[in-house]
Amino acid sequence: MLNLRQANQGRAAVWILLLCLLAYRVFHLPQAAVDRIRASLVYRPLWVSAAIWILFSIYWEIAAKNAAPEARSESPLSRCVHVFTVNFALLLLFVPVPGLVRRFRPRVPRRAV
Fold it and tell me: For labeling, which of 7, 24, 66, 78 is most exposed (least CB within 10 Å)?
């Protein structure tokens, strides 16, 4: 079983890896992708929503530090996996990923006959 320090080091390593991959991807984008991202930055409701999610996540982490110790809790590794998957899902919501930028369902629902 991992202790808390090992879990924090693993979490830090994952974040560093993700930031390096993100930096690599940002600096090696084709011009069409750069133009698409610049156009999406103008869409303000999306970025307001992202800011609200970020502020809520920071608040939740701070509030968790000051909470009373629980009788049972998940392991640090399990928590790391859960936090990572939630943050990755939020990242997919706000970053235009090639192949995931178009609708895959029609805008108007089909009517049953």
Answer: 66
